[in-house]
Amino acid sequence: MSEELSNAYVTGFNRNILRTTEVKGGKLRSKVKLATGDLYREEGVYQRMSGGGLPSKKTNRFGDSPVSESDYSRRRVSRNDYEDGQFMDWSDIVRMSTDPRAEKLDIMLQRFRRQEDIIIEQALLGSAQGGDNGETATAFTAGNIIDVQTGGNGSNVGFTYEKLVATLKKFGDNNVDIEMYRPCIVISYAQWQDMMQQDEFINFDYTGARPVDNVTPTMVRDYMGCDFLVTNIVPYMDTAGTGFNVLDSDINTTTGSWTDTDDTDIRACFAFVQDAALLEINPDITTKMTERGDKGFNWYAYVKQSLGAVRMEEEKVIAIPCDQSPA
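The structure corresponding to this sequence follows.
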């Protein structure tokens, strides 16, 4: 069989490239506030304003004008530039009997989406630059970490109904209005499995409509007013479940996910509302294709993006440590 006929046979048999396992990202962008920063600067400072209390009771028809105060502070976000590129070998089209260019570009785009999710998680769980000038490091509030043993009768456990209840109570204790913004709870597939094995989540005796009955099997929506986001891009905690591994050194650059550097097997699942964090992007994912005469006239695909994120409100992020191998 000639090469032309062989290629035609293979193309007719399978016109698509069968991709290996791909951990996809880019799930958190729609869950946080977005901002477009100045293209010509790498840092932005955003105002935070708060003011609780009650209005003054009027006791005189023509009394002095009431005056109340609002507190101001700032949060600083720093953008970093990311880039990637691949050559599109023209001979691949002949050798593979299919055009791999679109597939290669899609794989690169997934890398940027994974990076975006990791940056948002670092912002939500890490240290934020706050204070009057956005120059003071503000650590994650230790009081916003649910006990890893909640619902475990003195032992570390995975994701439990009791942890969900404790999380919602913590939002209430922090005076967070979860009716304005629905809480989003980020878990890995291990915690999704925990939910599928607990009656409170799947038994009609506890809920009138099971949250798992929808088109996408791993999407759990509208359970106690919460959305669940299931992803393997979830960081880890220390042995006690009280500290986070959200440093760049804890990222596996090969898989594009977090590494359990302390071998604790405790996931740092977390819950937040939309205005808890701000994601600044400029420019967004931008692609450029060009023919490189210095590289055998092969086509080269280049992708770039500049982004950064910062936690805006400590009260609106709750960490939920979940042991993936409870004793």
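Confidence is low (pLDDT under 50) at residues 1-15.
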